[in-house]
Design goal:
Number of strands: 8
Shape: globular
Radius of gyration: 20 Å
Structural class: alpha/beta
Helix content: 40-55%
Strand order of the largest sheet: 1-8-5-4-2-3
Strand content: 5-15%
Length: 380
């Protein structure tokens, strides 16, 4: 049966935009435009980043120099993978001690960006106001495109908070900053963006426009430019196109989704913080297999089959067959990027699989549980 354009017949939907004010892209856009995006001439900014960017590159020093003593309040460079809550508390307490701070500048991948959103959330709990947020992403995780903040609590579990005010106000994609990102991290977070785009296609509240139209474009760009970027890592045009693809993979959802996107993401949360696996890598592990599982459900297969022409393959009149072909294409892309991996490489054992599955889908029985257990087992 051929695919329809959406879940509803006739097509209908709703899109709720976020408060994002600016998305700027291009080489040296931070140097030329950062100061103009501060909320006021008297703004004081608190930089949030990780130790690698702060100590192994000159990027943070460049931002501090741009801000100067007029606008730079302090830098917190202790954000680690999956944003542990203790670090969020340290940063929030430091901001609280300086009432002149009105702006957060997050620099890095998903952890610093999510941390900045979570810090703004926690700051609001104490002071009844959110902080202005400028983000400078250096990976393709697309954390900058949502109003959701994820962090790791004291038990090691992933926690998510959602509020419309958590969406960054300004996104600056600067390929000279992204050029400092290690290639495996860059490419694997590109698969994370692919995960966003693919799972948005079958999410029940994802609007046809702009979300799904942007996601299809993002998928095409990711399939084209990730291999090119692997072959030419310093190519600024490829890097910028991938940054825009990451933006397109998630921004179009707006405020329609306040929770998880789908099973691949749920498995990513179950695997990420508990086992120390970066979310780019979790998407490499789960996405293709989840697509093949979803292909068994006609409604999801209809949406997944729409992807085929955007990755250079012809549709048939069989949506389930086409959806399976999408899963095979993702597997092929992973091999081309040398990103295929196993859970065994990250210390996951057979006896941990039922707990991973139940954490992902919130149940320990039924057909779906059995299918997810089999899926995770196949990744050992």
């Amino acid at each position: 049966m051929a695919a329809s354009m959406g879940h509803e017949h006739p097509l209908s939907g709703l899109w709720k935009p976020s408060h994002l004010q600016v998305m700027h892209y291009g080489s040296e856009s931070v140097k030329h435009h950062l100061l103009s995006y501060l909320p006021s001439s008297a703004s004081k900014a608190f930089i949030i980043t990780g130790s690698s960017l702060a100590t192994k590159t000159t990027l943070i020093a460049q931002i501090e120099s741009l801000l100067g003593p007029t606008h730079h309040a302090a830098t917190f460079a202790n954000i680690k993978q999956h944003a542990p809550v203790d670090q969020l508390d340290q940063a929030t307490n430091a901001i609280t001690k300086d009432p002149s701070i009105d702006t957060l500048i997050s620099v890095g991948g998903g952890s610093p960006i999510d941390s900045a959103k979570a810090i703004s959330y926690r700051y609001h709990e104490k002071h009844s106001k959110y902080l202005f947020h400028i983000t400078i992403p250096t990976t393709l995780s697309a954390a900058e495109c949502t109003a959701i903040a994820g962090y790791t609590d004291k038990t090691g579990s992933k926690v998510g908070v959602f509020h419309p005010e958590l969406m960054p106000h300004v996104i600056i994609y600067d390929c000279t900053f992204a050029n400092e990102t290690p290639q495996k991290l860059w490419l694997s977070t590109g698969i994370r963006s692919l995960d966003h785009a693919v799972e948005s296609m079958y999410h029940p509240t994802a609007p046809e426009a702009p979300a799904k139209q942007l996601c299809l474009s993002a998928i095409a760009q990711l399939f084209e430019y990730l291999p090119k970027s692997k072959k030419e890592p310093g190519n600024q045009d490829y890097m910028t196109r991938l940054q825009l693809a990451a933006f397109s993979s998630l921004w179009g959802l707006g405020l329609n989704i306040g929770g998880g996107l789908g099973l691949s993401h749920s498995l990513g949360y179950a695997l990420g913080a508990p086992y120390g696996i970066p979310h780019g890598v979790t998407s490499c592990l789960t996405l293709a297999s989840v697509v093949k599982l979803k292909a068994k459900k006609q409604e999801d297969a209809q949406q997944l089959a729409r992807i085929l022409p955007y990755i250079g393959q012809a549709r048939t009149d069989d949506d389930m067959k086409d959806a399976l072909q999408v899963g095979d294409a993702i597997d092929g892309l992973l091999r081309e990027l040398c990103l295929d991996t196993t859970l065994t490489e990250y210390g996951v054992d057979e006896d941990q699989i039922p707990e991973i599955a139940s954490l992902a889908i919130k149940t320990k029985e039924g057909d779906l549980f059995d299918s997810v257990v089999s899926l995770v087992r196949s990744k050992l």
